[in-house]
Amino acid sequence: MLLKNKQSPQHFDIQKSILSTDSQFWVSNVNFQSISTSFLTVKSKEIMKEKNIQIGVQHIRYSKNKFICFTNAFLTILRNKKQEIIGIQLQKIENKIEVYGQIQNWIGILMKECISLDFISNYNIVQLIGSGSTANVYQVRSKIDGLDCAIKVFDKEQFDQDYSIKQSILFEIQYLKLLSHPNIVKYLGVYESNTQIIIILEYLAGGDLKSNLEDKQIGEDQIKIIMKSILGGIEQMHKLGIFHRDIKKCNIMLRNQNSYDSICLIDFGLAEKANQENNYLFKYCGTPGCVAPEILRKQKYGLKVDIYSVGILCYQLMFQKDPFKSNTTKEIIVKNFLGNIDLPMTTSISKNGINFLIGLLQIDPKIRFSATQALNHSFLQDKITLSRNNNVSYKKKESIKLKPIIYHNSRNISPYNISKTSPCKFYLKTQRSTSSKYDKLQNESTKIVSKSFLLKNYQKMNTK
Description:
Elements: E1 26-27, E2 36-44, E3 47-55, E4 59-63, E5 66-69, E6 74-79, E7 85-92, E8 95-100, H1 104-113, E9 115-116, E10 123-131, E11 136-142, E12 148-155, H2 163-178, E13 187-192, E14 196-202, H3 209-213, E15 216-218, H4 220-239, E16 242-243, E17 252-254, E18 263-265, E19 272-273, H5 293-296, H6 305-319, H7 329-338, H8 351-360, H9 371-375, H10 378-381, E20 392-394, E21 413-414, E22 418-419, H11 436-445, H12 451-457
Parallel strand pairs: 6-9, 9-13
Antiparallel strand pairs: 1-5, 2-3, 2-8, 3-4, 4-5, 6-7, 7-8, 10-11, 11-12, 12-14, 13-14, 15-20, 16-19, 17-18, 21-22
Helix pairs in contact: 4-6, 6-8
């Protein structure tokens, strides 16, 4: 999948846009808060005016009670023959306005809310960093401010074959716009052309958590930093009613290598808003070995599915192994479905840490921690005394690849071509937990389903 066409506005019919059908342009009676005021030249209906205009989060104040709603407007950055930025054009269906002058500080605000046109004029490709069946991921450099970004490039032709791909992209853009948190990747904008949709994201140079932790055994204080960061991002998502449904090492990236307090959640392709009807675009989805059992059991589920996945990650960090070990995907799903997890005897993890882990991994969602409860647990409230990279030892591990259930696509490929599926070794016998209380809770919950039921249904699981 390549960046095939120069995405020029004259070659794109905005009435055929997948991303916007919004026609509301001029509005009044807006609760407006100004971010910036500039003296600019405005061209509307071939009439040129010089005037002070203000920009807010979603509106431009044109006059006292006349505003331009630029949410889902089409944005074109205007340049002269020397390719210097001289202004912008905003358009919705029949309405269009051009603004000229010192407007560079407006561009970032506009891009987050608009659908941008003419990608090639505004970015240079640096390198391909990830590849999948629905999208490619590139590192690019902005011609606007010189900063590096990450882009996800989707070809529109695949939408005719699978409507769910198109809808998942729309969800991803919608939710990334809503989310603003230090531990969630920053959404910078989206471009559309006749053939492609390109999502612009913050470039996270530190790599994913899997590559950062390879051959490393980290201490409890580093685990606390990682858990606080991830749960902080998830708490904000859950407050907005959004779940991620694919929390795992490869969907957690660092702004700076080995800097665990710079962690960010990425890949919102399976994110949706939780609802009481249990009606989702992807109902039966996730990564084998990281999924909450209620998803695999096709039960009604909610926001706490993310907390179980965080628990799987916490287990991996504490014990340097996967809780559901096998050399086959089927067996991993069966074990994940049943949810029986062995808690090894160890002196490296405190009793408080084990208690925290048990709260994350409860099979019954009613008993399982919420994000806020997990953040308030005494394990994460204890003072962290070690410096960032202290108490790190190296441990040689064999890497065995786990094949995806259905197919390999962008949801299963992380940047830098690292497989997103977790390595597992053969481990058939399910062991009893060292905690009798935890073991009882797990075993009581596994009586409602059978192994044969899961084996008949696992191939339908969506791993996008």
